[in-house]
Amino acid sequence: MENRDSLHRRFTQRLAEAALLGGALLGLNGNTLLFANDAADAETQAQAWTDDAGHSADDMDRLFTLKVMPLLKEKCLGCHGNDADDMKGDYDVRTRDALLRGGESEEAAIIPGNAEDSPFYWAVTWDGLEMPPKENDRLTEAQTEIVRMWIDAGAPWPSDERQKEIRDEESLVAENEDGVLVATSGGQADEWTYRRYQREEVWAFLPRQTEFEHDSIDEFINAKLDEEGIEPGPTASPETLVRRVYFDLIGLPPTPTQTREFLTAFEKDADAAWDALIEELLASPHYGERWGQHWLDVVRYADTGGFSNDYERSNAWRYRDYVIRSLNEDKPYDQFVMEQIAGDELHADKPANDPARVEAMIATGFLRMGPWDTAMVPQEEARQILRDDMVHSIGQSFLSMPMRCCKCHDHKFDPVPTRDYYRMYSAVSTAQPVEMEVPFIEDENTDGFQEGKQQTQALYDYAKTRVDRLVRKREAAAKAWYEEHDKPYKDLNARKGDPDDEKPPRAVGLRETEQGRLKVREQDVWIWNRRLERYKPMAQTVINAQDSWMNARKLRAPKTIKEDWIPENFIFNGGSLAAKGEAVTPGVLSGCGLPVEGAPEDDPFALPNTLTGRRLELAKWIANPENPMSTRSIVNRIWQHHFNQGIVATPNNFGVKGAAPTHPELLDWLTGEFLANDWSIKSIHRMILHSDAYRRSIEHPNSEADPDNTWLARFSPRRLTAEEIRDSLLAVTGELNPTVGGLPARPEINMEVALEPRMIQFSIAPAYQPSRTPEQRNRRSIYAYRVRGQADPFLEVLNKPNPNDSADVRDAASVSPQAFTLLNSDLMTDRAIAMSVRLQREADQLADQIQRAFELSIGRVPTESQLQRMKQYVKDMTAYHNQVTPKPKTYPKEITRSLVEEFSGRPFEYTEWLPTFEDYQSDLKPWEVDGKTRALADMCLVLFNTNEFVFVD
After folding, report:
1. Closest to 797 (Cα-Cα) out of 833, 822, 830
2. What is the pLDDT of residue 669?
3. At 472, which helix (H) or strand (E)?
4. In this structure, are residues 755 and 328 in contact, taking their beta carbons and an 8 Å threshold?
5. pTM for this model (two decimals)
6. CA distance linking residue 495 with residue 486, whole number of Å
């Protein structure tokens, strides 16, 4: 009798042998991992099951073992066999005799040789009886036909030994009518290990196609259109194209001057003008800001850690700038991958201040991007949560394969065993989160450090002074208590472990209100002290070290690293730390069929089981040009952001439950071109932007033939993202500060949200204070300070995704609060006034101001009708505003907070200082401008709410 491991090895070996005999190979990378015999063999076998003539006894034994028994297990045993004490209808299907005998009706359920008169057959065909009773569980016609054949053949039931023999034989058949086998490191049960898949389901695990009938994007697209009987649509106008490509590449609208220059050049030589524009935009520093946002969506960038404390991640901004910098430089994507997964290992031999090492250390902040906290969580569980997050993020971001699905069990749909999950878990198990000294490099923007540090230091000093005052009062009372009890004085830390009768009360000498205030001020001291790290040369990254005590408040490397420390890793059954299963060593996804370079022959998917090196080898495996998942993943993401939908519509999920590729050959061809161009992302931009498919109009004479535009006969319009809307407003009003990189900016947000009490553990978080000057506030939205526990309401209502979850596709849903926000919010009012002031500065006559407003905001001049209507509207609104005086609003310099003291349950109050507002430079407000300015601003507000402004055609 073979054991499970030897059978699994023989399975893989037989697949390799079959490949050598000329079968249709579906996957071969070093080892044969997926194979199918000639399709005709599968068709022949399928026909054998459905042809009643000439069946041997062996055929029927196989039919029962491979078809009927699985149906009984899936459809019947739940009610008629899993629980011997609760057998529905007293009907047991676990043995042949019981199955034939029937249940409480005492009527035979199966008449061997006569399916038509067998109640069991009536039930599965829902003929008078209905079993299984739920519509979703009902057998298909093909399944009921299998039951009929089996009964008519005498309902044979081979022995358990014979059934196992049949299953073992079938496990070595690479393809049959049920699908193909995918060899993996093996599941938790043979039924999973030898599970079959349809070829089209596991497309992402297969090697890329390398030979093609076509050799350009348009050839692939047009061939599919021909197949669907759809004519390609017309080319968009140059006015449409210039706005489209500006938003696609840099996320900002073209200025009227830029549009005119392009149109002039386009008239002379359309191709040369288009090519020059693409190169200009790809070279823009704003390109990295636009495309960096796409990547930050995927990796869940934020400046705080989330959960109940939402701890500051003071130096996360350096990772954000690394992403922008890398994209601007067109860093080869394979290098981009390796730096983020294992940058700390990549250049470990170089000096600490070497720019390449610094860059890579910052990059590995990728592993720290997810929400995480250690508060109130046992250390072992906190460590598991972090490692689970790393594994899932690596799989989802780089392989387009969500990994959480196989944390508790073998993947229900994809060829990813839970063993592979925990091998990847082992691959990251030596990575410890730290904030460590990493020097600034020349390319990093450190502007604003002095002012920011001064304000943070002032807030720290404000809180520390009040803490010290209360501590002195408490310790004076403690000293008096020790003296009264004739005991030597001990400070707070020294006396913590003493029995209650050997030390003074917890808050001796303090009133209940003072007890509460002390806790709040102590929390503030820690918060502002942590914020001061923002101005230090530190990075949020990881290092390889032994497990040690962790506190998400402040993470530092151990003083001594045990170089010989090797963690033990196990499969956690059901995902539970308390249910350790089989031990595992580091490894990669086996279902891809791509061995790890240098891995042992008996374990081709193994990574080094050393303290250092396991993540670097994992990164190299992911960045291998032969990796079918990672290479397709990034190319699909690039395509998605140009056409508003990926070739695979689920960019984070290439699995069975994800979308199938609409143009699989095009995806593989583009991926090949990507690799041939040294992993250059900009090379794929060029290919896409020069295609006819990209330059098509949104109009099509027969759009109903393809309502979802699956086949790309036309271009799909899209609404601007939240960031694009805000950035465009600042751009057209002339307020945008185009500085690249640097400290997080704090835009002005709704003041009620900014000042509302935001609970964190044991206290209230400090109020949100915007940056002091318009220049500091009006940076691009990618630089906005991102707090997980406090979303910017303007961006949130316009569908900016929650940073706790990876956002592979932006939600474009339209909801009524968006209309109210774009018409009535303070932000929109401020932008409209700024636009009005700009118009009056640049043109004297109302007609010229209106024309300028149209050109700036929607890229065209108004029609004569629109011009006349707008002129009348501005005149009417001027008359109205001249009769109305807006009521001024002021910014508070301090606010009073109310809390309940934790131990006593008594309420108390304290004052929070808001120093930003002591010399705050606000945007122009309605009460600061005259009626004409406000009237012109109303006209601008109308333009900001047009589809032409918020949509890209």
Report:
1. 822
2. 98
3. helix 449-484
4. no
5. 0.89
6. 15
